[in-house]
């Protein structure tokens, strides 16, 4: 079920009102929007900018800087793949290429059935277990090609 624009606007106004009085309210507002909708809808950013008396460009800069913000809904399952040096040295490039190929998507893509979104991450803190990824927030280390096959079978169907 997708929210209508009026639902987005109404809920955004509530979120802005809740956090507006904080010092530095933008990040808490963006976090709350993403928690509420699963992404930060572009359509509500002008209202947020007006309420905070900042430009839409400032908000865009923050949203585009932090990789965890999305501007569209994610899939049912979110896989974050570590792209840091330790994981790359341990076979992360081949593992991620296989994952993307099996799912038929590219970075930040979502499968056609809406089941899986794959996002790059720039260090998951699992260097000793490289290559690593998170599936719906759960860490998985030492991800081999066989494990990628199993993982895709579990989350993509």
Would you give an account of this structure?
- With 157 residues, the protein is an alpha+beta fold.
- The protein folds into two domains: 5-65; 77-156, Glutaredoxin (3-Layer(aba) Sandwich), CATH 3.40.30.10.
- It has seven helices and four strands; from the N terminus they run ααααβααβββα.
- The protein has helices at residues 5-19, 26-37, 45-52, 56-65, 85-89, 92-103, 145-156, and strands at residues 77-82, 116-121, 133-135, 138-140.
- A four-stranded mixed β-sheet has the order 2-1-3-4, covered by helices on one side.
- Helix 1 (5-19) runs antiparallel to helix 2 (26-37) and helix 3 packs across helix 4 (56-65).
- The chain is elongated, with a radius of gyration of 18 Å.
- The protein starts with a helix and ends with a helix.
- The mean pLDDT is 93.
- Belongs to the complex I 24 kDa subunit family.
- GO terms for molecular function: 2 iron, 2 sulfur cluster binding; metal ion binding; oxidoreductase activity.
- Keywords: 2Fe-2S, Iron, Iron-sulfur, Metal-binding.
């Amino acid at each position: 079920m997708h929210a209508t624009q009026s639902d987005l606007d109404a809920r955004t106004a509530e979120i802005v009102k809740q956090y507006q009085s904080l010092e530095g309210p933008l990040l808490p507002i963006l976090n709350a929007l993403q928690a509420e909708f699963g992404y930060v809808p572009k359509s509500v950013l002008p209202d947020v900018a007006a309420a905070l008396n900042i430009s839409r460009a400032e908000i865009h800069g923050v949203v585009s800087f932090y990789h965890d913000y999305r501007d569209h809904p994610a899939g049912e399952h979110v896989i974050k793949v570590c792209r840091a040096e330790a994981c790359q040295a341990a076979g992360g490039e081949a593992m991620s290429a296989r994952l993307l190929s099996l799912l038929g998507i590219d970075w930040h893509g979502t499968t056609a059935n809406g089941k899986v979104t794959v996002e790059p991450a720039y260090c998951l803190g699992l260097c000793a277990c490289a290559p690593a990824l998170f599936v719906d927030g759960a860490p998985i280390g030492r991800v081999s090609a066989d494990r990628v096959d199993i993982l895709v079978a579990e989350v993509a169907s």
